[in-house]
Design a protein that fits this description.
Elements lengths: L3 E9 L3 H12 L4 E5 L13 E3 L3 H10 L4 H8 E7 L9 E6 L1 H13 L4 E5 L2 E7 L2 E7 L4 E9 L8 E4 L2 E3 L12 H7 L4 E8 L2 E3 L9 E3 L24 E5 L2 H9 L5 H4 L13 H7 L7 E6 L6 E5 L7 H9 L9 E3 L2 E8 L16 E3 L9 H20 L12 H11 L24 H12 L4 H22 L2 E2 L3 H9 L9 E2 H5 L21 H32 L16 H10 L4 H5 L6 H13 L1
Bound molecules: flavin-adenine dinucleotide (FAD).
């Protein structure tokens, strides 16, 4: 008979989701234990060596604003940093940082190891303990039982995982780590529906075998902008590594097309569904036949290793084909493959089984986060892990759980899409998924979410005070610019002409001048003699507000209408069979999803506006 222990919160998985979940619960002073099949894989990055990127950078900023760890961790371990899409509007500006993978994992492990109220255990969780539709704990491979008031499943790509490289199949997790082969059966016995998904990764190449003279170096930014709102910008200014750009060519495409029958993806050996927006090289060449070449970025895995990651070339083709495929690429003609590219299949859930709080509808106090919920990506995983960790803690503390809605953050878009839409492939975040992009910028994540993080208890008073002071400075400066007028004198007009801007015929406010596309706050410093020196973060907000406030106000109006429907709650025990005038398809979908609000109901595919009107009338009369 194994022994047993009691905790407030059990977290299964120490990947990007599990780490955020466990830190949140422990920081809210709950006795927490986190399990992983290998302590050496804490916050492992089994795929791309970077954090952030388009829309993913937004998620990292939002995690930071809510009191999560990912932003701080990458600020300590990045080796190159770049603000993407600078030439476009602020809605799609996105920070992306190359990480030293080993440092990233080591730093997160240290944070977990030094966190009060947190215990780390290397052990495979094999069974979920459920009584009366409520989770009671877990059992590990030794038979040991860990009772808990809440359990969070963040098992990533490990459940019944298998890795495929051509005909070669290994029943392991990523990087040859042990797969978790027992928990899936216990979850299905508890009535949880599982699906099979897949994803893939490219080969790792020995840097000494690469001819960089045939590639285009990619430089980091100077100055570097940190991810975390609590990171001192001065602390991240350091020497950065280079990445390199190269391309596939006709020969690469020919090698792949000639061997498609040996690809487990095309021979049907792979059963799991892969991410459309993160396709393997085989997929890209088959789907975009007209494209003569595909971009590939050669990225360092870290500064203490020669391993280079070939971004854009994930594959599951056999080893001999991979060698010819990579050797056909300029600069890789003589490359030595350190790790073969491979695909991985694993069990995860259909997230329609979850509330937007990430709690299972059918099992009380059981929560889930990360790739296990059908998403793909470190950032998507960390965002869900944080919300699951907060809400498991709220349920243990008897406090109200939080829901970030689609107008408040990409985290809201991510979770709402997962639990409300039918996802038949790993879900990856993109800015196009948000209808309020201009409001959900990465630069204002603190103004959107930090109050929530502070109210929950994960953001310090000091940091929240800093935000309130920043907002006060922004508002005060905007007001001053609105009330500071300049005339059409020679000095002003000379400056405007030098900025390729139309000279003034009569007076104008500085606010009006800055709203011109060719002018920004800094370019008026010589004529704005009353201005005080302000922090960069304030100036950035002043510029964005002045330039986009028309669009921002319009989107804020749309959000008001959205919020009204989100506020119209639907009782969980509503009997949809009792609503005779509902169409059959809508009734089935509503019974399956059990949306919590009219707003969520209106986003379920197969539920029409007419069905929503019927539902509104029914709720009004009941
Ligand atoms: C080969 C490969 C390729 C990928 N390609 C991409 C890509 O191209 N683009 C992209 O965005 N993302 C990709 N990813 C996904 C990315 O790695 C994940 O999104 C991210 O790591 C998910 O984080 P997570 O916390 O949900 O799970 P993971 O990082 O997978 O962590 C899961 C954790 O759970 C633990 N665990 C699991 N089951 C048990 C159990 N029963 N008992 C105890 N511990 C358990 C593991 O030890 C681990 O600590 C890829 C992943 C892999 C493996």
């Amino acid at each position: 008979m194994g022994f047993s222990e009691y905790y407030d919160v059990v977290v299964v998985g120490a990947g990007h989701a599990g780490c955020e979940a466990a830190l949140a619960a422990a920081r809210l002073k709950l006795n927490t234990i986190i399990f992983t099949v290998s302590i050496n894989s804490i916050a492992l990055m089994p795929c791309n060596p970077n954090i952030g990127g388009t829309s993913k950078g937004h998620l990292v900023r939002e995690i930071d604003a809510l009191g999560g760890e990912m932003g701080k961790n990458i600020d300590k371990t990045f080796i190159q940093s770049k603000m993407l899409n600078r030439s476009k509007g602020p809605a799609v500006h996105s920070l992306r940082a190359q990480a030293d993978k080993a440092d990233y994992s080591r730093e997160m492990r240290q944070t977990l190891e030094n966190q009060d109220n947190l215990t780390i255990k290397q052990a495979e969780v094999c069974e979920l303990i459920v009584e009366d539709d409520t989770v009671k704990g877990v059992k590990i491979f030794t038979g040991g039982v860990y009772y808990a008031k809440a359990v969070i499943l963040c098992t990533g790509t490990y459940l019944k995982a298998r890795c495929l490289c051509g005909e070669a199949i290994t029943y392991t997790g990523p990087n040859g780590l042990m797969a978790a082969n027992h928990l899936s059966d216990s979850l299905e016995k508890a009535g949880i529906e599982l699906v099979r998904f897949k994803t893939g990764t490219p080969a790792r190449i020995d840097s000494r075998s690469i001819d960089y003279s045939r590639m285009t170096p990619q430089y980091g930014d100077d100055p570097v902008i940190p991810f975390s709102f609590s990171t001192d910008p001065a602390s991240v200014q350091k020497e950065q590594v280079l990445c390199y750009l190269t391309y596939t060519n006709e020969n690469t495409h020919k090698i792949i097309l000639e061997n498609l029958d040996r690809s487990p993806l095309y021979s049907g050996v792979i059963e799991g569904t892969g991410p459309r927006y993160c396709p393997s090289l085989e997929d890209k060449i088959v789907r975009f036949k007209d494209k003569e070449r595909h971009q590939l970025f050669i990225e360092p895995e870290g500064i203490h290793t020669n391993e280079m990651y070939v971004s854009g070339a994930s594959s599951s083709l056999p080893e001999d084909v991979q060698i010819r495929m990579y050797h056909s690429i300029p600069g890789l003609e003589n490359c030595k493959i350190v790790r073969n590219a491979y695909a991985i299949e694993y069990d995860c859930i259909n997230p329609a089984q979850l509330y937007p709080t990430l709690e299972f509808k059918k099992i009380k106090n059981l929560f889930a986060g990360g790739q296990f919920n059908g998403s793909s990506g470190y950032e998507e995983a960390a965002a869900q892990g944080l919300i699951a960790g907060i809400n498991a803690s709220m349920s243990v503390l008897g406090k109200e759980k939080i829901i970030i809605d689609r107008s408040e953050g990409y985290i809201g878009v991510l979770i709402d899409d997962l639990v409300t839409k039918e996802n038949h492939e790993p879900y990856r975040m993109m800015t196009s998924r948000s209808e309020y992009r201009l409001l959900l910028r990465q630069d204002n994540a603190d103004q959107r979410l930090m109050k929530k993080g502070h109210d929950i208890g994960l953001v310090s008073d000091e940091q929240y005070e800093h935000l309130l002071d920043k907002v006060k400075k922004i508002e005060k400066e905007i007001k001053r610019l609105k009330n500071t007028f300049v005339g059409n004198d020679e000095k002003i007009n000379d400056l405007l002409l030098s900025l390729n801007s139309t000279p003034l015929n009569s007076g104008a406010s500085l606010f009006e001048l800055i709203s011109r596309p060719e002018i920004d706050y800094r370019s008026l410093s010589e004529i704005d003699t009353d201005r005080k020196s302000l922090p960069d973060e304030v100036i950035e907000q002043v510029d964005i507000y002045i330039k986009y406030n028309g669009y921002i106000e319009r989107q804020e109006k749309q959000v008001e209408a959205f919020k009204k429907l989100e506020m119209r709650k639907i009782p969980f025990d509503i009997d949809y069979d009792d609503i005779k005038s509902l169409r059959l398809e809508a009734r089935q979908k509503l019974k399956n999803f059990r949306p919590i609000s009219i707003g969520q109901a209106s986003r379920i595919s197969g539920v029409s506006p007419a069905d929503i009107s019927v539902l509104l009338v029914y709720l009004k009369n009941s």
